[in-house]
Amino acid sequence: MMRFSAVDIxxxxxxxxxxxxxxxxxxxxxxxxxxxxDSWPADRxxxxxxxxxxxxxxxxxxxxxxxxxxxxxxxxxxxxxxxxRAKLLDLxxxxxxxxxxVSDNLTQHLTYLKTGPWRPExxxxxxxxxxxxxxxxxxxxxxxxxxxxEFIDIKRKEEQHVALTT
Length: 166
Prior knowledge:
Order of helices and strands: EEEHEHEHEEEH
Low-confidence stretches: 160-165
Shape: globular
Structural class: alpha/beta
Oligomer: single chain
Mean pLDDT: 90
Helix content: 25-40%
Largest sheet: 8 strands, mixed
Radius of gyration: 17 Å
């Protein structure tokens, strides 16, 4: 049973979109320093029912442009159903995961995907040295520069260094 500990309207997590965001409980990754550690226990929060989801989609119809799940990939069948429902309403979809990859069954229903565990020494998407990546799955493009403009400069320098040494 998929449960959530928070539901919010967010403006930064999915650049260029106004997103209905769910923090899903039961995360098995357990990143040290996680800002959502209170959501780790799977029995916390409220069940994310079809009725609740539909009510929120209807409530914010015309105001939101995306649905974001902060976790939930550990409930792949349920998450896939919710993503499909959002897509039927022409909403963009996004998943933030602490894993490096998720199943194709999920990615085929996603517009955006943030991958990678939280590592304090690397920082989040707003850090130029982050291990995390934010993808536009329609194009495969890494969009980290939307969160941290310095990210693109560091990646260019790395590519130039590789080109010079090969």
